[in-house]
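Q: I'm teaching a short session on how sequence maps to structure, and I want students to see two examples side by side rather than one. Could you give me a first protein with its sequence written out and its structure tokens following it? Keep the formatting plain so it prints cleanly on a handout.
A: Of course. Example one:
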Amino acid sequence: MHTTCLKQDGQAKGCANKTSACPFRPAALAQFTVEEIFDFAQEDLISDDIMLLDTYNELFLWIGTGANDAEKKAAMQMASEYIKNSPDGRGPDTPVIVVKQGFEPRLFTANFIAWDPEKAKVR
């Protein structure tokens, strides 16, 4: 699985940058890789993946339509580990919001400079 952290404020908060030594990945998820994207856009959302969007106040798990069952199953655990090991001191009560491709709520899309609802439609 390749998971991408989209960083709203451009600050690294615990996501490894293209490394297999991600500090929040448990041993059970060793096959996962994580890449940070700064200055992200809607086009960075990859349908075959699960993406993390960290807005500090909440963490969104965006589930692409092509994500497989193993990725979906491990995503919540990875989000919990991300929050737990985040160096910014946020608590375990940080909300994790699951968003499915094509059903993105305004709370999610508001984090993108120019969200195009037509691009978001599942085909």
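Q: Perfect. Now a second example for contrast.
A: Example two:
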Amino acid sequence: MFDKEPGKVQLKFEGFVLDNLKDNSSPPDKSKGIILGSQEFIQKMKNILKNKKKIIEIKKTERFANRPDLSEIFADVSDKEKRNQKIILSNIEYGYTLKEISDYINVHYSSLSKVISKDKKQCDQL
């Protein structure tokens, strides 16, 4: 894409980044994940990464690059039971930390830990 010589590649990449920063006055929204690019490119990468979240050799940020925002996950919460289900989903399925979830829903992370522990105990009894 840039060049075959490493020195030229670095210079061209730096120019590419600087040009992009000039075109976009605000920095990229990192809350969306680590994938930067057009919506089409991001969607293509999400499809590729969809089944990679179980492979622990891949860094967590890369495994969960296609996870939905917490605002999407908690969008239809209407009661405590539904909220607790979304807490479990966010943590176990999408890899959000208890701190990230607690900051979003404004509940102390120790309370979230109890919700998840209770769920695990119920699953163990099955």
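Q: What should students look for in example two?
A: Point them to this: Residues 67-126 form one domain. Also worth mentioning: The radius of gyration is 19 Å.
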